[in-house]
Specification:
The chain is an alpha/beta fold. Among the domains are: 280 residues, Alanine racemase (TIM Barrel, Alpha-Beta Barrel), CATH 3.20.20; 81 residues, Up-down Bundle (Methane Monooxygenase Hydroxylase, Chain G, domain 1), CATH 1.20.58. Helices cover 45% and strands 12% of the residues. The chain contains 20 helices and 18 strands. The strands form four sheets. An eight-stranded parallel sheet has the order 5-6-7-8-9-10-11-12. Strands 14, 15, 16, 17 and 18 form a five-stranded mixed sheet that branches. Strand 10, helix 11 and strand 11 form a beta-alpha-beta unit. Helix 8 crosses helix 9, helix 14 runs parallel beside helix 16 and helix 15 runs antiparallel to helix 16. It is elongated. The two termini are 51 Å apart. The N terminus and C terminus are likely disordered. The structure holds pyridoxal-5'-phosphate (PLP). The site of pyridoxal-5'-phosphate has 17 residues, from helix 13.
Length: 551
């Protein structure tokens, strides 16, 4: 008796738990706004994406309202909206984070950042960064002759201008003249020949040059741009060259010419340990130079302060495992430790954060022109005499609709549907199936897919069956968007850099469709994928599930 009762309970269909009502909080979580939004982005009570440029203040900007205004003025899309106050806030936060680390550690030097203009060269952006960074004497970094000419007029007393990249004679001459005019412009020597060239030009002009060196660290970068550092990097002066350089400076009795030691690990440093190791290595170079009597006063840790595009603090390729304050602490404490141990004065600390300053402040708005939904087909009539394949599909569908199904029943139904559809496709190609029969087969097939997917998803099978990934991919909409991946998201196309993407409206509604963004270019590469290169078993689950976003 007891046994039959319990088995009766087990067979009774348990009603599924009432789904929690959708909320803007759930949308914020879905689009991981906490990870990348940095407090600037949120969803307002109207369900619109919005910006809060000043933390702790009530000023908010509804992105939809901005877009409506752009429409009203008939301006074209796609459009980049820049939030100047966010840019200023990022400059402030960076400098304050370093100031806090300096104060807390008792570091005896100061921090003086530079902004690498290659990251966003817009005149307005550079002006705004310089203006917001004025209290901390924030300077600039340039990487080419054109950038040097663009930045020189902006450098006044106290601010640094660092010149990276390959420098020809005319560029070196320009730098030397700017130095003569009292500007704090330093060429960053990347090759020994550049050093020789600089000396020769300085001798010709009868002046004593000041310069910096980019050193080639043993520490290899981390993240997508890892090749920017390490012994095989194309950048930087090797240690034997550095030693030869200092010997030459001693011979010429101009030990103060070398003022700054620089390294750059590459963008988006994923792992803070790698940064600490590189900073320690560079600090040792600095300490050795100082003890040798070379007048180095600055240590420049380059760029690479990451923006967390990934989920939380996961150390995957789009995520980073540290925040802004931890970055500043890591740099300051690592330099201090070496300087204290070696008994040398603390250098002026320089960093070249670009992405971390600008990333949050600009938003690309892209209109959706249309959607292709493979499983949404117009209704149609069943052929008067349905073919065997069509009948089989109908039977599978009826079976699915009658009862609730276990994951293995769902998989079986999907396999049957695939077989029947393949059969129908083949028969049609061979001329044995009429168009209306094929249409009916396809309609039924998509209908079955639509029934199977939610059931399988809800069962959360682990490991995920191949079929689930296939179904997710097949039932994903294509959203045709008015932009070009090659123009607006080149990093994504080239090296798979992830960017946060989300709808800006109706975020208080539960998204019901999965979508992939495709652009207007005639190139099939013009789409937004997530980590296309990653096919490993470990990541497959995550990659596949995030290869689409919800709409
Ligand atoms: C690109 C670059 C930067 C900026 O890197 P971010 O990751 O944007 O901070 C800094 N310094 C050098 C030498 C660079 O090439």
């Amino acid at each position: 008796m007891a046994k039959s009762l319990s088995s009766a309970v087990a067979h009774q269909a348990v009603p599924p738990p009432e789904p929690e009502p959708w909320s803007i909080e759930r949308s914020a979580e879905l689009y991981r706004m906490d990870a990348w939004g940095d407090g600037f982005f949120f969803i307002n009570e109207r369900g619109h994406a919005a910006v809060r440029p000043f933390s702790g203040e009530d000023v908010t900007i509804d992105i939809s309202a901005v877009v409506a205004e752009i429409r009203r003025r008939n301006a074209g899309f796609p459009v980049v909206i820049r939030f100047q106050d966010v840019l200023r806030a990022r400059v402030r936060r960076l400098n304050e984070a370093f100031a806090a680390a300096v104060a807390e550690s008792g570091y005896e030097g100061v921090y003086q950042g530079v902004y690498p203009i290659k990251v966003n060269q817009m005149h307005e952006v550079v002006e705004e960064v310089l203006d917001a960074g004025q209290p901390w004497d924030m300077g600039l970094e340039c990487g080419s002759k054109a950038e040097l000419i663009a930045t020189l007029p902006h450098i006044d007393n106290g601010r640094l201008l660092l010149c990276n990249g390959v420098k020809d004679r005319s560029m070196l001459r320009l730098i030397l003249s700017a130095q003569q005019l009292g500007q704090q412009v330093l060429p960053i020597i990347e090759k020994y020949t550049e050093f020789e060239q600089l000396q020769a030009l300085a001798d010709e002009a009868g002046v004593s040059p000041r310069f910096a060196v980019r050193i080639r660290l043993a520490t290899q970068g981390s993240g997508r741009w890892f090749e920017s550092a390490g012994v095989r990097s194309k950048f930087g002066v090797a240690i034997p060259e550095l030693v030869a350089m200092t010997r030459e400076l001693e011979r010429r009795d101009c030990r103060d010419a070398l003022q700054l030691v620089h390294f750059h690990l590459g963008s988006q440093i994923a792992d803070i340990q790698v940064l600490k190791q590189a900073v320690t290595e560079a600090s040792q170079v600095y300490a050795n130079l100082v003890r040798q009597g070379i007048g180095v006063t600055h240590l420049d840790v380059g760029g690479g302060l990451g923006v967390n595009y990934g989920a939380g603090y996961a150390r995957d390729e789009d995520g980073i495992n540290y925040g802004l304050q931890e970055y500043a602490n890591a740099v300051v404490y690592a330099v201090k430790e070496v300087c204290d141990a070696r008994g040398v004065p603390a250098p002026v600390l320089v960093s070249e954060s670009g992405r971390a300053i600008t990333a949050h402040h600009s938003v690309l708005i892209v209109p959706v022109l249309g959607a292709y939904r493979p499983d949404v087909q117009p209704d149609g009539e069943m052929p008067a005499e349905p073919h065997k394949a069509v009948r089989s599909l109908q039977k599978t569908l009826d079976g699915l609709l009658q009862t609730s199904n276990t994951p293995s029943e769902l998989l079986e139904a999907y396999h049957d549907a695939k077989d029947a559809r393949n059969e129908a496709d083949q028969l049609f190609t061979l001329g044995y199936l009429a168009l209306d029969q094929l249409a009916a087969a396809q309609r039924l097939y998509w209908r079955i897919c639509r029934e199977v997917l939610p059931g399988l998803l809800a069962a959360e099978p682990d490991p995920e069956p191949e079929e689930l990934a296939e179904l997710k991919e097949r039932l994903t909409d294509l959203y045709l968007c008015d932009f070009s991946v090659f123009q607006s998201m080149l990093d994504h196309w080239a090296i798979g850099q992830g960017f946060p993407i989300m709808p800006i409206e109706r975020l208080d509604e539960q998204p019901g469709r999965r979508g992939v963004i495709v652009d207007l270019t005639c190139d099939s590469d013009g789409k937004v994928r997530t980590r296309p290169s990653c096919r490993c078993m470990r990541c497959r689950r995550r990659c596949r599930t995030t290869s689409a976003f919800s709409w």
